[in-house]
């Protein structure tokens, strides 16, 4: 970054500028290429785009009025920071039940930021346990760190658990609800986008692009929409029902377990980078433990039925395993068996995978 900054300063100096703001809008210093070679670009006239009208100094060329995001009115600022002060400052346990509505967005994010400032590795599990009742707005539980548990009795909008960073999220319908959770949407699209760690249990259906770019979260959900686990690089996902189309597109890491009751999951899975496999003994133990947690935290009726008839249900699960990820895991296991440990084993595993990829590509 220092080299980039130095290069930028030299370019600015050559143009006679000391500040970025002085360069904004100076289209007179741009040179339009008059000899474009590509056939698509020939004849393009940029003069109207680069035209500078005659205006006085009263017309601003850059942001001079700070934006007001209304953060002081957010639930975190008005309620959660004060309520959780003992946890933030002294690491003391805090537990509370609060109402929530869909205008309350990014609930828990500012709280998580304040905790991380003083506790870089988070807090002990469940130090902060907040039980919300109602409909949550966008990005509920975004980026929350280890030690923060947010329980939602209701439903949530898009980006549920976005960037989750070690915290725990649970969502389930209210006791008074009459619908079947496994057949109804309870969280919106793009849940756990870019999440890096933590766990989540969703007693209901999630929208599209569930766990996109997830790199470490363990999540259980009743069903998902299109493009589930897209570009996922790590973590574990258990889906106790159907998925939409194009599942696992670009998935290069992590593992997904799907209860394929209808036997038609293969039609909706993108197998360009992943394979569909049966579960081994380790997988079975993993899935059973996650479903047990799911039932413990959300009282999921479907989860209870699965556990009650486990011998039959477990045979309906399939595993989605990225091919390159599988090769790395196998190489890592072999390296550790040979006596290597830690970084040495990991390096050996990646080198072995690179050789395999080169060999496969060459053949």
Lay out the secondary structure.
Blueprint: H1 2-15, H2 47-50, H3 75-83, H4 85-90, E1 94-100, H5 109-118, E2 128-136, E3 148-156, E4 165-172, E5 185-187, E6 197-206, E7 215-223, E8 233-239, E9 253-259, E10 274-277, H6 281-298, H7 301-308, H8 310-313, E11 317-322, H9 323-337, H10 342-362
Parallel strand pairs: 1-2, 2-3, 3-4, 4-6, 5-6, 6-7, 7-8, 8-9
Antiparallel strand pairs: 9-11, 10-11
Helix pairs in contact: 3-5, 6-7, 9-10
Care to describe what's here?
By secondary structure, the protein is α/β, with parallel strands linked by helices. The chain has three domains: 2-50, no CATH class; 72-323, Glutamate synthase, alpha subunit, C-terminal domain (Pectate Lyase C-like, 3 Solenoid); 326-362, no CATH class. The protein is 30% helix and 22% strand. Strands 1, 2, 3, 4, 5, 6, 7, 8, 9, 10 and 11 form an eleven-stranded mixed sheet that branches. Strand 1 (94-100), helix 5 (109-118) and strand 2 (128-136) form a beta-alpha-beta unit. The longest helix is centred in the C-terminal third of the chain and has 21 residues, at 342-362. 37% of the residues are buried. The mean pLDDT is 93.
